[in-house]
UniProtKB/TrEMBL annotation:
Lineage summary: Eukaryota, Fungi, Dikarya, Ascomycota, Pezizomycotina
Protein name in the entry: Calcineurin B-like protein 4
Keyword Lyase: no
Entry keyword set: Calcium, Coiled coil, Signal
MF GO annotations: calcium ion binding
Record-annotated EF-hand domain positions: 90-125
Highest taxon above the source species: Eukaryota
Transmembrane intervals: none
Coiled coil residues, start to end: 169-196
InterPro entries: EF-hand-dom_pair, EF_Hand_1_Ca_BS, EF_hand_dom, Nucleobindin
Family matches, as PANTHER family: NUCLEOBINDIN (PTHR19237), NUCLEOBINDIN 1 (PTHR19237:SF20)
Amino acid sequence: MRSSNIFFAALAGGAFAHGDHGGGSQKPIVSPNANWMEKHMAEEHHADNYDATSFFSLHDFDSSGNWEPREILRTYGLMDESNKHVTSERRDQIVKEILTLLDYDNDGLVSRDEFVRFIDHERKTLPDLGTGPGHHGDDEYEYEIHHWEKYHDENTKLEDLTHPEDIEHFKKHEQMEEEEERLEALNKRTIVEENIPAKFRRD
């Protein structure tokens, strides 16, 4: 696990998983014709290379393996103050639109497999629903500021934690670190083989 000093430096400068609105890491330049997902990843996460699994995991805020309606709203920036004007009716409509696209088994949730199917197999992308770039809000950031010593002390182990919310938060950060490392590895590759349609790949 990374040391607490490294984590806190990243957090203070703007952690990858929550965006950087204060001038930390440089935001990638995206084409005006980029789709909403590309714009969101550049604006909120400062990443220009990602895959469907990484995108899903970064927005599975409770690490449940599914996107629930609240997570759909947060992904689209509807938990952020910039969208406080959006009516409850419009929020319900946005959730319904996304579930209509992604919820293949109609259980009211979006699973990782459903999301990968939509992005990779059907070659589609999340639509721009007019809510901006999708700022996730600052409540998670404030929680981390108060508890970073506990979760990221290099001597802290999962079994040392007793409160369910602490355990879940600890697990989430471990997952986020793994996804960040995967994205960093992807960004170092000129060509991401997994993104090339199978018929064009070399045997």
